């Protein structure tokens, strides 16, 4: 695995505070400046009938990657809750940190 020279992390402790918007803007500006960028969203959850694109779709558009590379489809939860709670509510396995790291290491180029 090749490690990037620069790693930018956008994190927050609440929902609907702009993490995805900020992340998309940072990706787009870096990419426009000639940088090779990648976005990873380990899991996403939202109301299946919610308006607008998913977080992974926003980040994929900004990074130029396929949406499935940004967030694996098996971790798209169709209820608006924190992903571990959403997985549990849907009767799906809640991914462990080891699960997240194992899959995401395979997707890094």
Side by side, the strands of the main sheet go: 1-2
* Overall body shape: globular
Q: What is the overall number of helices?
A: 5
User: Low-confidence spans: pLDDT under 50, at least 5 residues?
Assistant: none
Summarize the structure.
This protein is mostly helical.
Description of the molecule:
The protein is mostly helical. Helices cover about 40% and strands about 5% of the residues. It is built from five helices and two strands; from the N terminus they run H-E-H-H-E-H-H. It has a two-stranded parallel sheet with strand order 1-2. Helix 1 packs parallel to helix 2. It is globular. It starts with 18 loop residues before the first helix and ends with a helix. The relative contact order is 0.16.
Keywords:
mainly alpha; 4% strand; two-stranded parallel ribbon; 41% helix; 5 helices
Element layout with pairings:
Elements: H1 19-32, E1 44-45, H2 55-63, H3 67-70, E2 76-77, H4 83-89, H5 97-107
Parallel strand pairs: 1-2
